[in-house]
Amino acid sequence: MLKNTPPFIERKSQFYSIGKINDPSNENYMETKTIEDPYFWLRDESRSNPQILDYLKEENKYFDNFLKGTEEQQNKIVEMLKSYIKEDNTTFPMPKGEGQFESNYYYYTKTYKGKGYQEVWRKDRLTDIDECILDCNLIADGKSYCDLTEVQFSYDNRYMYYGVNFNGDEWYDITIYDLVEKKNIEHNLPKVKNPVMMIRYSNNIYYVGYENTTERPYQIWRYDFITHEKRLIYQEDDIERNVYVLDDHQNIYVYSCSFNNDEYYYIPLDNYGNERGDITMLLSRDMNVKVDMYLWRDSWIIVSNKEDVKSHKLFIVSRDDPRIENWVKIDCQTKLPNTFLSKSDEYVNTSNNVDILSVICSHDWLCVHVKLEDITLTYVINCSDGILSNQWILLNNMNNDLETINIACGFHNCNKVWLSISSPLKPKSLYQVDNILNLTYGEPIENYLIHLYTKETPNYNADSYVFKRLYVESHDGEYVPVSVSYRKDVNEEAPVFLYGYGAYGLTIPAQNLYESRIWEDLGFIKAIVNVRGEAMRGEKWYLDGKMSNKMNSFKDFICVSEYFKNFEGKTRKLLAEGHSAGGLLMGGIYTMRPDLYDCVIAGVPFMDVIATMSDASLPLVSGEWNEWGNSNISKDYDVMIEYSPYDNLKENVDYPSILITSGLYDPRVQYWEPTKFMAKLRHCGLDKKNYKYFMKTNMDKGHFSNTDRYEELKEIAVEIVFGLCVLNYHI
Questions:
Q1: Is residue 229 classed exposed, middle or buried when 0-12, 13-18 and 19+ CB atoms within 10 A define those classes?
Q2: What is the rounded CA–CA span in Å between residue 644 and residue 611?
């Protein structure tokens, strides 16, 4: 590996202000505070400053030079990753739209060896003809980046639509395709940020409108792609709220939300997808609760934190009078299975150690997905004469507490369901249950399963691996769940790969060994650390790692890292990795405990917390003040300044090796955040001889990795080889 001169970027004396400067009338804002930032000038929203672009290219060249001579290693890693997937693959056909399981059309995808993108196919069950209806490889041909939204279909299976983006800024051009006439439908839809919705038989498309600068979702529009008429359905003027549109083929739902509370409206539909009433409020934000609402018979089924802000439970209310004071908690006499955190004397719909995630409503039953640690428990509630049973039937086989069950396919007026069953050690399989009403409380689900499909997993033998869950005590006595995996023949002094995220209540699952075992096969111990800020231990675990409690996320990860540093009596090297909000986690632990880690990989990291969260003109910021805080407010600033990675770099500290990745067109974490961090790190750190700090900016993409599956493997291989080189680890 060649050692070359690290890139240099000049410091320029510049100041920015926070506090009342942005909103002098806001009584909550602190008096104006001026902050010196010698790298503030690296922010260029036009992304055209030649000095900045040249610097990013120099950083890329510097990193590429570091990895010169590792091409053979990179190719070996790519081949290992490819050996885990079936390159020629066909997914199991799934029904969509009218007819439900008796639909005329079933849809599936195909991939071919050597092709980076999938093809979308459908089977006409009347003619038994299979047809390729979309070849994503043709759309991506000649493009350095190509991101397609999920392909969607109208309820009558006539129209297909999808969005395409070619630079990673997440603005998508929509295509509507007539599958009968075999032609694109001309339209004047604007670019959208998230998938639009096509409803039933009608020509209506409902989509979200975004503010131009902040990219906040604030409007719901209806568009008729035959008449080209547009109508504004709803507009949200509160800059701290976002709006989305949902449907259940009986109603259109307008959903206005913040991180603290939700507001719901609905518009009833007729059998053809046409509106048959005005927009009506279901739930006001003044109730100050988080909710998901599902129409069932003459009632609304509600998942909400109404009774306890730290836990979501299941309620029911009459469709005619859904006021919150009329909500009734659904009775449950079923106890939770025993785990480390939950005990058998706790009931599913009352325990604070679990969260109700979602509900599927059919006429004669409800399916309830429940989060218990990182396991999804699936319960069925049968209904007799309109009365819901209080004996919830657990589908999971708790002899294997790693197993997760989800309903992969189910419909409103049908008692047949398809179940998806998987675990970290077993490939995902699909099963059919002919009549879910036949299930009996306490009887094993295996008695009713009809096997449909198991995902092929090349080059995998479950007997070669160990998987276990640990609970490591954190700084305040709480226990942090950690999913640990390694090969049975692992070296006694093997290094540890730690991965974390820690925000938005998103739980990083125990990754499936059969799909993601590269670190194990390289001889590492892999540990997925579910710090507070995620929801591994329910809503409380999330709330205890956000806003004023954010420091818990970093302290949890550090405590787990200390545990593994001397795991089972051996001093081990530590490599830590996280992306996006997980990149913030990496930046925090990097600046707080530079002595602890041998290498850190921070993907598209949120590094400049104070400056970003004070500026409501930037995308996402105002909508996330209830996740991170608003640094214009003194009490929020006091918390943020403790962990903001950019603000906590100190001079003459021997920081460990780090690789930071970035996307020039990233709308979620602006490119200048990792860029400023790297520039300041070069100024502060003691890396004058060791050449330990690196940044790789993709100059033509955004937040996410390459969408071509083979190019994505190359990106992963580069990061892995970097870690191996830093640790002086040979394969």
A1: exposed
A2: 10
Question: Which amino acid, 335?
Answer: K
Radius of gyration of the chain (CA): 26
DSSP calls for 460-508: --GGGEEEEEEEEE-TTS-EEEEEEEEETT--TT--EEEEE---TT---
Q: What residues contact 121, with CB distance under 8 A and at least 6 apart?
A: 107, 108, 109, 110, 130, 131, 132, 133
- Whether the model clears a pTM of 0.85, i.e. scores above it, the answer is yes
Q: CA 118, CA 139: separation in Å to the nearest integer? A: 11
The Cα–Cα gap between 632 and 151 comes to 41
Torsion of CA 631, 637, 641, 647, to 10 degrees: 30
3-state SS class at 105: strand
Cα–Cα distance measured from residue 157 to residue 106, given in angstroms and rounded to the nearest whole number: 10
- Of 689, 694, 623, 631, give the one whose Cα is nearest residue 659: 694
Per the CB < 8 A criterion, the answer to whether 417 and 433 are in contact is yes
How many residues belong to the chain? Answer: 731
**What are phi and psi for residue 628, nearest 5 degrees?**
-105, -30
673 with 609: CB under 8 angstroms?
no
Strand 183-184 versus strand 197-198 pairing type: unpaired
The candidate with the shortest Cα–Cα distance to 645, out of 583, 712, 552, is: 583
**3-class DSSP state for residue 120?**
strand
Which pairing describes strands 119-124 and 129-135: parallel, antiparallel, or unpaired? antiparallel
Distance from C-alpha of 451 to C-alpha of 427, rounded to nearest angstrom: 13
Q: What is the DSSP letter of 436?
A: G
Residue type at position 14: Q
Listed in sequence order, the residues at least 6 apart from 463 whose beta carbon sits closer than 8 Å to its beta carbon are 488
**Distance in angstroms (rounded) separating the CA atoms of residues 9 and 682:** 9
Rounded distance between C-alpha atoms, residue 281 and residue 293, angstroms? 12
Amino acid (one-letter) located at 305: N
Amino acid code (one letter) for 711: E
Q: State whether residue 352 is helix, strand or coil.
A: coil
| 3-state SS assignment for residue 520 | helix
Q: What is the mean pLDDT of each run of 10 residues along the chain (731 residues)?
A: 76 94 80 96 96 97 95 97 96 91 95 97 96 97 92 92 93 95 94 83 90 92 94 96 91 92 94 90 94 93 88 93 95 85 77 87 92 82 88 83 82 89 90 92 87 94 93 96 95 94 90 87 96 89 95 98 88 96 98 97 97 94 94 97 98 95 94 97 80 92 88 96 94 78
Per DSSP bridges, beta strands 693-698 and 262-268 are: unpaired
Task: Report d(CA 617, CA 622) in Å as an integer.
Answer: 8
* CA atoms of 171 and 214, how far apart (whole Å): 13
The full 3-state SS of 200-268, as one line of letters, equals CCCCEEEEEEECCCCCCEEEEEEEECCCCCEEEEEECCCCCCEEEEEECCCEEEEEEECCCCEEEEEEE
Backbone angles phi, psi at 610, to 5 degrees: -65, -55
**In the structure encoding, which two tokens stand for residue 440, read together?**
């009996």
Q: Tokens 């299941």 label which residue?
A: 314
Q: Does the domain at residues 289-457 carry the CATH identifier 2.130.10.120?
A: yes
Comparing CA positions, the residue from 562, 501, 566, 497 lying closest to residue 535 is 501
- Distances 283 to 92, 237, 262, 299 between C-alpha atoms, Å: 39, 18, 8, 14
State residue 103 phi and psi, 5-degree precision. Answer: -55, 145
Rounded Cα distance between 686 and 670, Å, is 27
